[in-house]
């Protein structure tokens, strides 16, 4: 781990607010752009930021280079038309599996995004899956 990455790591551990985490994430992006950090270091630090964000109070989203942020962008793309279809939910499930995003992380992120959209006066419809009936389907 580079010296820059170690400094960011220590800041992440000491942080008490999501605002401070967002400032660190911006610094990591700048260091990545200037090639003071590798992408792998930035991704590792971003994932640490997301884990730390879960531990500090508040319902704001912290934007950082991370697996969760990549998933958030995909989720926002599917929500753009204000409808989350069953097909999109299946695709999101596959993306979560690929990125290692838990169902709890998905639900939390979805709730945060829906809260933001409600504040903006926007509504989203989410298709629900029907529970299968007890018998076999007839042909």
Keywords:
single chain, about 140 residues, mainly alpha, 2 domains, two-stranded parallel sheet, 6 helices, 2 strands
Walk me through this protein's architecture:
There is one protein chain. The chain is an all-alpha fold. The chain has two domains: 1-65, no CATH class; 67-128, no CATH class. The protein is built from six helices and two strands, in the order H-H-H-H-E-H-H-E. It has helices at residues 3-14, 18-33, 39-55, 67-79, 86-99, 103-119; strands at 83-84, 125-126. Strands 1-2 form a two-stranded parallel ribbon. The longest helix is centred in the middle third of the chain and has 17 residues, at 39-55. It is elongated and about 50 Å long.
């Amino acid at each position: 781990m580079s010296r820059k990455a170690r400094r960011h790591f220590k800041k992440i551990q000491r942080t008490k607010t999501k605002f401070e985490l967002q400032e660190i994430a911006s610094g990591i992006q700048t260091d990545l752009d200037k090639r003071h950090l590798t992408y792998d270091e930035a991704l590792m630090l971003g994932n640490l930021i997301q884990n730390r964000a879960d531990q500090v109070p508040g319902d704001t989203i912290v934007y950082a280079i991370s697996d969760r942020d990549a998933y958030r962008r995909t989720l926002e793309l599917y929500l753009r038309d204000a409808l989350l279809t069953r097909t999109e939910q299946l695709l999101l499930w596959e993306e979560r599996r690929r990125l290692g995003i838990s169902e709890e992380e998905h639900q939390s992120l979805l709730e945060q995004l829906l809260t933001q959209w409600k504040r903006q006066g926007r509504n989203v419809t989410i298709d629900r899956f029907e529970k299968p009936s007890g018998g076999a389907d007839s042909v």
